[in-house]
Amino acid sequence: MDDDEKALAELPTLADRMAYHTKRLRIIQYAAGAEGVASYKAKHPEAKSIRVKASMIAFQPKPEGYSDFLCGLVDSWLTSDTALAETNRADVERLNRAMHPRRFNPDNHFSKPLSGTLLGRLADVFAKHGYHLDTSKTLSMAKVRASAKAAKGERSLGRPFASIGHIADDQLAVGDQSFRIEKHNGHDCIRISVNGTRVRLRLDALAEFVALAGLGQSLSLSSSYGIRIGELAPDPENGPEADPLANILSENRPQELPLLKGELAPDFRSLSERIAALKPMQAQHSTTDTDGPDPLAL
Asked: Around 49, how many Cα atoms within 13 Å sit in the side-chain half-sphere?
């Protein structure tokens, strides 16, 4: 108090003294509480108009293992649809059993904001499973659960493939069939079984064929050619120069189906075989047509 008297005596204006009182009352409130503030104002009446508000916070720190439990819970959400479908109340009850005797309110605990440190750990759990958690905004465990549902929903849909299916993770889904995607000579491929023979099919070649044929959603991979999901087999690699469709256009051709009236029979010959078949026709045309040059020779 004596130091206050000396300091105030050196301040010539009321504004300077009020600034000094404000600073001192802030310190007195922290150190001596309401009684100290009342005593100071009684000694310096000009400071009575200054308002002092204190906000004291008391809380219990989270018990040991709390963050680990929530990280494990989020991990289960990302790996199990059953765990993800549980209610917030049910998960908080599990948390209470694990943190006994500490107990959290099952009605609202998962609605409380999470600390930045815990959010960082939860984001790492998401990343481990190939998902992203946006930590730029305030999140609660309920919102983290919603983010997990959204992320898993997007992945389950996958990305469209050639208008006939979807690709999700390492699987190509066409209708009710699923094919595992594997790398071969730098290309994404699937294995299918054609009449008992396993063959490899490049996805870029399949997509190009679908586009050229205009098949779209009408394509059925389980049609008359008897194609079904094939098991992966440790067959020798054919080399980078191998034609990805050569195994399909092999001697193991599908048997011809009964044709409808007026329907042309499918031609399974290779391009080189068809060109070779045209040569005799070209020679015959050049010997009988004397009206002009052979158009095939131009």
From this structure: 6
Domain count, the chain: 3
Q: Are residues 177 and 210 in the same domain?
A: yes
> Residue 19 to residues 4, 7, 22, 47, 215: CA-CA distances in angstroms?
13, 12, 5, 10, 82
Question: Domain boundary at 157, 192, 223, which?
Answer: 157
Q: How far is CA 267 from the centre of its chain?
A: 44
Domain region containing 41: 2-47
Does 125 share its domain with 199?
no
pLDDT given at position 248:
43
**Residue 243 domain flag:** yes
Boundary of a domain, candidates 131, 157, 183: 157
Is the domain of 79 the same as that of 164?
no
55: in domain: no
Residue pLDDT, tens place only, 140-174: 999 999 999 988 887 666 777 877 777 877 888 77
Peptide linkage before 244 cis (omega within 30 of 0): no
Per-residue pLDDT tens over the stretch 17-38: 999 999 999 999 989 999 999 9
- Locate 214 and state its tokens: 């205009």
Does residue 240 sit within a domain? yes
Same domain (yes/no): 111, 148? yes
Residue 281, CA distances (Å) to 101, 119, 271, 277, 294 in order: 94, 76, 16, 8, 12
Reported as a single tens digit per residue, the pLDDT across 80-96 is 999 999 999 999 999 99
Alpha-carbon distance 213 to 201, whole Å?
17
